[in-house]
Amino acid sequence: MPKKYGGLRRFSLKWWLALPFSLGDIWRRFAPKDPMVHAQCYWWYGDLPRRHPQEVFPEAAYADLRLLNVGRRDPTTSTTLFELGCILMGRAQADARRIVEVGTFDGNTTLNLAANVGEEGLVVTLDLPLEEQEPELGLAIDQALRNVTNRQVVGEQFQDRPEKARIRQVFGDSAKLDWKTLPGPFDMAFIDGCHAYEYVKSDTENALAVLKPGGLLMWHDYAEMEDVSRAVDEFRNRVDGICALQGTRLAVGWKKKA
Ligand SMILES: C[S@@+](CC[C@H](N)C(=O)[O-])C[C@H]1O[C@@H](n2cnc3c(N)ncnc32)[C@H](O)[C@@H]1O
Predict the structure, then answer these.
(1) ∠ Cα 183 185 190 (to 5°)
(2) Distance 159 CA to ligand 1 centre (A)
């Protein structure tokens, strides 16, 4: 049996002792030396319960995971290494062999999923067409939330890897694409494309349509981005076990079985 995780303690003695008692303490809180600590202070959106990954994926807590290119991660555009670990734990818990990812970027997460799906597995990863740096999007969104990445890097981390045999790249706007043409049904969907509310809603609806009953849904940028958090919160009653994973910007849930 996996050890029960005790939960993070708030308002502990250490918390009280760490209250800012001087101007120096206040300044250190405004400008921590590690920019990642600063960024995490703003992971505050969304109403889902925050749960520890071990509670959410108990059967995967001791799973052997294959991690590739761990030093080639950009947590400002991709996931942190801990988030990647949680995504792979989710894959192991669901025993997902067929996965769809929205938002390829440089392909680090795609590569790592493909490294863990087994010989017969398949990871379908979707990104906007490579030819246009400024594509016209299918949904009207706040322009500040356009996040079209450099077209030269899309999928670059898996191009020369043997795992590429288990990856299928699809190019198109996730809201314009006919998801029925994808080789589903899927065991798992990872939603990490455009982070505008309208896209997260549309991608989630489409993912639910191609997921198997009981399939795993994971969203990135929950808690950090207001639009993502608001959209995911709206699936509260339509997805089983929905929650956010502590220490990450991941939200997870399972497609209802009936
Ligand atoms: C945050 S990055 C994905 C990171 C990747 N999942 C990872 O874990 O490394 C978002 C990607 O979604 C793509 N994207 C943005 N809008 C999109 C849309 N409407 N349809 C498909 N892909 C989109 C961007 O080009 C970008 O590469």
Answers:
(1) 90
(2) 17
Give the ligand 1 atom nearest the CA of 174.
20
Spell out, as residue ranges, where the chain has pLDDT lower than 70. Answer: 1-9
Tens-digit pLDDT profile for residues 100-117: 999 999 999 999 999 999
Sorted by where each starts, the structural domains of the chain and their CATH numbers stand as 20-255 (3.40.50.150)
Measured in Å, residue 3 CA sits from the centre of ligand 1 at 36
Antiparallel, parallel or unpaired: β 211-220 and 250-255: antiparallel
Question: What contacts 148, CB < 8 A, 6 or more positions away?
Answer: 128, 133, 134, 135
Placement of tokens 């405004």 in the chain: 30
**pTM more than 0.70:** yes
Is-contact 191 200, C-beta < 8 A?
yes
The answer to whether the beta carbons of residues 69 and 78 sit under 8 Å apart is no
- Answer whether 79 contacts ligand 1 (Cβ < 6 A): yes
